[in-house]
Every structure is written in structure tokens, then in C-alpha cells.
Amino acid sequence: MLSLRELMTLEDSRVEEERAQEQARREHAQRAKMEAELRIAAAEEARRRAEAEEAAAREASAREEAARLEAIRLAALEKVRLEAFDRERRRLLEQAHAERAQELRAKQDSERRSLRRALAGTVAFALIAGAATAGYYFGIVKPGAEADERARREETARIARDLEQRDREIEAMRAASAETTPPAPAAATAAAAAAVVTAEPVRSAPPARSQSPVVRLKPSASTTSTAPKAPCVDNHDPLNPTICPGSH
Predict the structure, then answer these.
(1) Helix (H, G, I), strand (E, B) or coil at 201
(2) CA 29 to chain centre
(3) DSSP 8-state class, residue 245
(4) How many other C-beta atoms can be found within 10 angstroms of the C-beta atom of residue 97?
(5) How far is residue 86's CA from residue 97's CA, in Å, rounded to a whole number?
(6) Fewer beta carbons under 10 A from the terminal one: N or C of the chain?
(7) 188: left (phi over 0), alpha (psi -120 to 50) or beta
(8) How distant is the alpha carbon of residue 138 from its chain centre?
(9) Confidence of residue 137 (pLDDT cuts 50, 70, 90)
């Protein structure tokens, strides 16, 4: 049988063991509580961090949205400004083109009017010059030329008549001389005939200063020395020196 001491020792061991178990349970409960508190604190911290991150994300998103909206607004304003600038530029270009076209039309109209006036002046001058030329030709040149032609023809006809008249007179004088003088030698007769035939007609002057042609006979030495002297017909006859030498 167990003694009292042994029982007490067992009781003490049991008490100590219970006390140790209780201590262990308290320590375990305390550690569990601390761990729970830590977990709660960590969860709270995580929640706060998540909330902060979410708030920061929302703020960043809001800022990005605001920046995007601002960029859209600025782009719209820039587009409006560029469109207004482009419209103003096109308006100025169209205005410049219109002014340039108007200036060109005015210049072309002025040049056309100047050309029309110059052409009218040229045509008028040509008509006046043509009329003056025609008037001068038909009123002065042609009548003058026709008058000159008529005068030349009349002068030619008169010279021909005069020459024919002189030829007839010479033939008559030859016939009279042949009837009144003895026959001469053949050489003297030929020389006399050559002297009579050799005549130098004087050129006719222009119609404005027309003169009667003068026919001068050149006597030869053989004629004056051997030909028989014919009676003088007219001392004023230009053929008289041949017919009657020494009369002047």
C-alpha cells in the first residue's frame, strides 16, 4: 500500500501538472488572442491600405478622366481655332483671287479698249490715207499722166508731121534743083544725097516745156564744094543753109 508521502507526492505532481496545463492553456489562449488581434490589426491595416489604394486609384482615375476631358476640350478648341483660321485664310485667298481677277478684267478691258481705239485709229488713218492716195492718184497723178501721155503723143505726131513736111519740101527742092541745074557727077550727087539725109533730130523736152523740134542738116565738105547750088527758098528755114549755103 502506498504511504502518505507518496500520495502527497502524487497529489503534488498532479497539482503541478494541472497548474502547468492551466498555465499552458492561458498562454495558448493569450497567444491565440494576440494572434487574433494581430490578424485583426493586419486585416484592418490591409483594409485601410486597400481603401487608401482604392481612393488613390479613384483619384488617379478622376485625374486621368479630368485630364482626358481637358485634352478633349483643348483639342476641340484647337480644332475650332484651326477651322476658323482655315476659313479666314480661304476667305482671304478668295478675296485676293477675286481682287486679282477684277484687276485682270479691268486691265484686259482697258487693253481691249486701247486696242479697239488703236485699231479704229489705224483703220481711220488707213481709210483717210487710202482716200487721200486715191484722190491724189485719180485727181492729180492719173490726169497728169494722161495729160503727159496725150502731150507726148501730140508732140510725137507733130514731130512726125514736121518731119514729113520737111521730107516733102526737101524732095520738092531736089526736084526743082534737078530741073534747073545740069546733071552732076555721080559722086557729087551721092555726097549731096548723104548730106541731105544726115540729120540730127533734137530730143523733145518735157510736155510742160514743149518746143518745136528742129532738124539740122549737116553739110559735108564734098557737098559744099561740088554740089550745085539750089536757089534759096526761105532764109528762115533751118534747112536753108544746106540748100543755099552762105546765105547766113
Answers:
(1) strand
(2) 116
(3) T
(4) 10
(5) 16
(6) N
(7) alpha
(8) 41
(9) confident
Cell matching residue 143: 490726169
Specify the DSSP element, H or E, that contains 133: helix 4-136
| Backbone φ and ψ of 215, nearest 5° | -105, 115
Between CA 114 and CA 156 the distance in angstroms is 58
Compute how many other C-beta atoms are within 10 angstroms of the C-beta atom of residue 241.
18
Determine the pLDDT at residue 76: 94
Closest CA to 170 of 149, 198, 146: 198
Residue 71's pLDDT band, with cuts at 50, 70 and 90, is: very high
- Find the length of the chain: 248
Among the listed residues 192, 195, 198, the one whose alpha carbon sits nearest the alpha carbon of residue 226 = 192
Which three three-digit cell numbers place residue 108? 484686259
Cβ 156 vs Cβ 203: under 8 Å: no
Which residue in the block uniquely carries the three cell numbers 497567444?
31
Decide: 155 and 201 in contact? Cβ < 8 Å.
no
Mean pLDDT across 36-53: 89
Residue 227: the pLDDT is 43
Environment class of 166 (CB within 10 Å of its CB; exposed 0-12, middle 13-18, buried 19+): middle
Instruction: Name the percent of the chain lying above pLDDT 90.
Output: 17
